[in-house]
Amino acid sequence: MAMVVSRRALPHAAEVVVRTVSxxxxxxxxxxxxxxxxxNWALEPSVSVTETVTNNAELKQTNQKRESITELSPGIxxxxxxxxxKLNFDFRLQKxxxxxxxxxxxxxxxxxxxxxxxxxxxxxxxxxxxxxxxxDISAFGGSPTSDANxxxxxxxxxxxxxSPYMRGQLGGWAAYQLRYRESxxxxxxxxxxxxxxxxxxxxxxxxSGGSFSWSLDGGGQQVKYKNGRSTQSEYIRALLGYQPISQxxxxxxxxxxRNDYASQEKERTSTPGVGFEWNPTERTRLxxxxxxxxFGNSTNVSFSHRTPLSVWQISNSKDISVVPNQxxxxxxxxxxxxxFQLFASIEPxxxxxxxxxxxxxxxxxxxxxxxxNGGFLTSRITVQHRRDVSVGLLGASNSITFSxxxxxxxxxxxxxxxxxxxxxxxxxxxxxxxMQWSHQLSxxxxxxxxxxHQQSKGIGATPIETTTDGLSLLFSTxxxxxxxxxxxxxxxxxxxxxxxxxxxxxxxLSHQF
Length: 513
Description:
Elements: H1 13-34, E1 40-54, E2 67-81, E3 85-98, E4 106-120, E5 124-136, E6 154-170, E7 174-187, E8 195-206, E9 212-225, E10 231-245, E11 248-259, E12 267-270, E13 273-281, E14 284-293, E15 296-307, E16 310-321, H2 335-342, H3 350-364, E17 382-394, E18 398-411, E19 427-440, E20 445-459, E21 464-480, E22 483-496, E23 500-512
Antiparallel strand pairs: 1-2, 1-23, 2-3, 3-4, 4-5, 5-6, 6-7, 7-8, 8-9, 9-10, 10-11, 11-12, 11-13, 13-14, 14-15, 15-16, 16-17, 17-18, 18-19, 19-20, 20-21, 21-22, 22-23
């Protein structure tokens, strides 16, 4: 049980992980390109040019400066599945050129990719994922709706993960899985600590039919923060499941965990819990679990329901967040994820559906990566309690999405001396909502509007609060089968610890090859 992964090679982990992910991507693309008969693949190169005129380029309360900003953005999207490879790859570069002050010129990039490579037939696999995105450093610096502005509260973050694993069966009575994960988190800002994480897990579960089932699993993790202390954790858990009817599964489980998150020495805690999963139809799912943990009780409740023209999602989770710039635990799915479920009744094939969803979002002027409350960056382990609601409605000429989120973050990591919002606040509460409406004016043109609100409160010796409100309008039209033009206006108001207002007009011309 005291088994811990050695981290002597930890300083080289970043290079190893990036190299492994890169090779896996190259291999995946190569496999998919060798034979189109071996799978279904969709490749979509694109380029866009955006011109923005803003009355407050630096997002300041006083001494506001007007600016004309040109954004050049080439990108490539690859989605598909081959004989031994599954891949979703979406990469884009952004170059920002400032007409009034070229010293502000900057470049950013965005990446969203995940994949699976089957190395040995139905036994040895490697899965990987990577995310590069712009995120808020502080919860109290305002949340701009555009990355074109010069904003000290925004930084580029990257999360990379590679995970080899093997799975199989033992004599037809049990299934096993052994897995190792190596991941790293990086941020351009020195205000956020880099993190390397190594994790192993092993599991054994029953495969025989019947109403009863069982499983036994365990694992360990070591997290190393740059300029901070390392942490270690281990756990072991046994589960007994009962399925009285095909749509309902009940479970009771228990085990032990040890970690040094809340103290300098490892503490041991028993972890009993219960849970259930109910699937009355293939379109409806309700699942809930509750478990005793070292920080209290962890919860995970999720509900989802889909009709031909709507998607409904509700979640409530409380758990540990280890990586500082990961997308927070239990977050609402992105706009793309929501529409991907919504279009399931229209196109069951996932590859064709992905293409259909992306074209719909582009035609409607809807950001596929939009998420209400992207959180903030921390340099410590936190306990996060998050509640989310999202609704998507699809009509003949109108579509509406609504999402709301409430998050409470409390820092752990005893003995840490890492600067972030939780250094001066015992608890940070964030609540936000966003509503987006899109109307199809004609087969070639659409009009959309988005309203958003976010409030962040810090509870501690010196209370702090910031609110952000935004409104945007967008017109989109198809100029040719592969070329689209967009015109948008936005208004952003930030009040509290940060205080500024901005108005901007933006035009975009995009082409897909």
